[in-house]
Amino acid sequence: LIHGLNANNHDNFDNLTAMIKQRHPGTITFATPLYSNLSSIIRLTKQVEDIGVEFMNFCKSHPQGVNLIGHSQGALIARAILQYFPDHNVHNFISIAGPQAGQYGTELLKKHLNWDLPKEIVYRIAYNEVGQHICSVANFWKDPRRNIQDLYYKEVKFLPEINNEVNHSKVDDFKKGIVKLNRLVLLGSQNDTVIDPWQSAHFEFYDENENVVPLKNQRIYKDDLFGLRTLDERGALITHSVSGVEHVVWVFDPALVDQYIIPYLD
Fold first, then answer.
1. Kind of pairing, strands 205-206 and 212-213?
2. Which Pfam families does this entry report, sorted A to Z (predicted)?
3. Catalytic machinery residues
4. Predicted TM-score of the model (pTM)
């Protein structure tokens, strides 16, 4: 289990771990203690590499296979670990309220970083070498305006790469790590006030006019850049939209855990 921004393995997952053990007896759980609280703002490539090494050791200790759960920023880190370490033995990956397609809303910045900025100027801080090096949110901040897109693809060093939207040396590995999953489960809610748009949890995102583009109309799906279409065509891409669920509630509400997490641990 991988926690989100400004969170830790205990606050985020003690309750969830207890529910999993009660409802799915015999399950061995591990929630990473790495990059907790304020250290979770460190650039995502570093977090992925370090948590990934820890995770692969866990995989080797459980050769029968494991399941992976990530919440919020931790869901994005978890997805990237699958891609950075394509020899994993993950069966099911459950992405809970994760900004998988990016973030273009400042509530996350206000809530976790105490930054009260208009979203239209965040790129000035995020889209440069310093911003990319020191701030995790900058690594998945996606300004959809047409005149900013070239800068996004030039400067952002994480999200365009794991989406295989730019050329790099690990394109094949990044796709291999996703298509080998048995199931990719995406959980999101229109009442999520942190992830913006909330549909980013389902790999959907704004066009230049801030209209949300359905997944199947996006290049990452149509060109199957990292395997989403492959998963979908074999029935392995599962999306749940649940009304009334705030960002952090997913990992605390027993009814949600029973319906949307426990069934995918088999």
1. antiparallel
2. Palm_thioest
3. 72, 192, 247
4. 0.96
